[in-house]
Amino acid sequence: MRSRLLVPLVVFSSALLVYLLTMPPGLTWANDSADGGDLIAAVVSGGVPHPSGYPTYVLLATPLARLPWHNPAWRVTLLSALAGAAAAAFVAATVQELLGRTNRAALAAVVAGLALAFSPLFWGQATVAEVYALHACLAAVLLWIVVRGQQSGSLRWPAAAGLIFGLALGNHLTSIWLAPLFVVGVLPQRSHARLRKSPNQHTEVNATTESQSAPRGGDFRSLVAGTGGLLAGLCVYLVLPLRAAGSPPINWGNASTWQGFWWLVSGELYRGFVLAVPVTAFPGRLAAAGSLLIQSFLPWGLALAAVGALIWPRIYRRVNVAMLASAGLALVWALSYNTSDSYLSWLPAWPFVAVWLGVGFAEMAEWLSHATPRGRWLTVALAAAMIALPLTFNWQTNDRRRDRSAEDFVAGILQTVEPDAVVLTAGDRATFGLWYGRYGAGQRPDVLPVSRDLWALASYRDAIGAAQPALAGDTVEALIENAMTASRPVYLTQVDQEPADLPAPPAGAVWESLAGPLEGTRWQHWQIYRLTQNAEDSQQ
User: Fold this and answer.
1) What's the pTM value of the predicted model, to 2 decimals?
2) Residues 86-100: pLDDT tens digits?
3) Sequence-separated (6 or more) residues with CB below 8 Å from residue 405
């Protein structure tokens, strides 16, 4: 047991240390993580984040958000670091399971785990408050469970596969592309005789087990166990109506009603992006996906991964086919989903590539040991290079210790606006940034941030109207008029949008651009406007 855990623990500790040393000090917008402010604010305030609600992420992040260290953004981001390190550890454990308990297998496992951990895309998601590091982690855990279960007639493995698959679906809906792996996990081998690999050859070797054949009806029991585990994992979605029932400030869709719950968990808000990429754009997107793989694992790493997929141990052939199918389905989805960050939904395939890389590395080490008397030392040198090079090359890009852009924006806006201000926000960065400052970090409780873009959603208008009855209105213009009637200052802010998209002001009022008090900060691309009474109308 100790030898089995040693390598994954070394990989986990090494990856986590690197992530902790390169995490941002607070809120960040790096690596397409603008949604982080929404996730953190929802976790801290007991709310429900944007569709699909991400209940698995919310549940795991909630206890971390209560830790006494640093600020809420850092504490919630810690979940991504832990999940990223765990994914690398499970990759290492899977490689060991495939190759046996040899020194060569242990070295291949370390290389595979850290190749994943230090790949730039994966590293970038492990240091921001987003759901994708956990997304990949659950894929890595599912793969390990399925591999372990292929050698066992125990029902605990299909039950565990179902549970993890259900939790993965509770973290991100595109985990549905892991279904081929889940199916293999709940369909046992035709024979339950335990099979082991020879330490030096990828061949089948029969071994004595407690039971040489599956009990009668074992296939059905395995399906029942897997289905039961899946249903248990999906129960995580029950947390959404429970949290929504408390009327938290972040409450997308109001999941306390069936209509709101279905709107949330089905991702109805984003259906317009599904299969919306023109066919003519596919070649360019496919080339970008290939470039992303090369950047992540480098050419020699991908070559080893290709070798690993081709010489995959025969007794795990179904697992290999399922991995290829899951990775292919996720790629098709990423190519056809019409958003700029759709590539992140392909990240769960990264652990699969890393496992293939580990198998390929072990095969290369086997060849070197026979090709040259110094093959062992050459193998160790190559392993060190495959770990050190991506760590060195990608450190500067992923070092976010001085990233305070988002924090500066939140501080600048909240220091600028007057007491009891209503701040309209445009775009995800501005909206979720101020949600974090107000509801996550607890700053300026007198200020009400209101998303101009979300005002079209009836559930959002109803939530604001319930908390602030004097501001209720069907349009943004009505909201502004009601705020002015209530003598509340009105502002609008946005980030990285030119020119400013300002709502029509009420009669006798104009939007005045403010320079802001933080012109010397590291973030210069945000704008703020104040609604003021027209001077000429005031004189009349």
Assistant:
1) 0.91
2) 999 999 999 999 998
3) 28, 29, 522, 523
